[in-house]
Write the structure tokens for this entry.
Amino acid sequence: MDLEVFCKKLPKLELHAHLNGSVSPETIRKLCELKNKNFHEDLSRINTSVSLKECFKIFDIVHALTDTTDALFITTCDIISEFHNDNVIYLELRSTPKYVEGKMNKNEYIETIIKAIEHSKKLLPEIIVKFLVSVNRRNGFEDAEENVKLAIDYYKKYPEYIVGIDLSGDPTEGDAFLNLFINARNIGLKIAAHCAEVPNEKEIMDILEFKPDRLGHCTNIHPNLKGSHELFDKLIESKIPVELCLTSNLKCETIKSLSEHQFLYLYEANHPICLATDDKGVFDTTLSQEYKLAADNYNLTKDNLKQLVISSVDYAFVSKEEKIKLLNTIACKNKQLN
């Protein structure tokens, strides 16, 4: 079977997808018509961004299009459907609750995403969808504290959908606010933290010592990637799974080439890893494309790709029963690939 076809048919898990970064051009056009706005000139940069800062500017444009509950509902449903069409059987979306004066508060933001997940579940029962409440580090302490409280409150109401907190945002600004996550973790919420997107040895070590349940990127940890032996040894010792986003890192130029990507160091060290899109809309990618990139650049066999998927189940923020269900689904679908 052709590798591209194989990767498309492979049942996959997406563990690192930002909602606003996953908006497709088709959905953007739909939202522009709905809101009678035109961002096409600004969005022409969407797939040619050459810096991390530029990528965050694009998020601002998408946020302007998803500033009502109607637009947010459409966006979330479309994203879930598109991942489903890419044969993703498990999806974790993450987003920072948004307040838009006169249009939407943070509670309505979270509730709308939950409604979209519930609606999609009826139409597409083959895909399991969960939600992580994000803390945007550049928005300051009070906003972070409020979002953690919201995550705790909604986890108690909707534990089947709200499963964790995501530390994200521009890594060159703000703080990691790690102490804010302690209570959330104590009640059962999982913690996913963006880590080492830029060199910052003290913060990276602080995050590693905090021991989140998963880490995003971990680009500048290996000594060959502006990290250090101490940081890399600490990461390997921790066994914390790392979400790797090949296209994202390449287009943001946080790595020079895929041949230098941290995937190689972590895979060779047999460290827990999973492949993810990060922002499939911003970076014009799919999870199938990420698997093909890994196979093409790191000499992975089809069996290696299957094992990456199976391993990802261990890192998903789900119950033991749901993990068994996912493994059974994977086994059934993989039989058709042999």
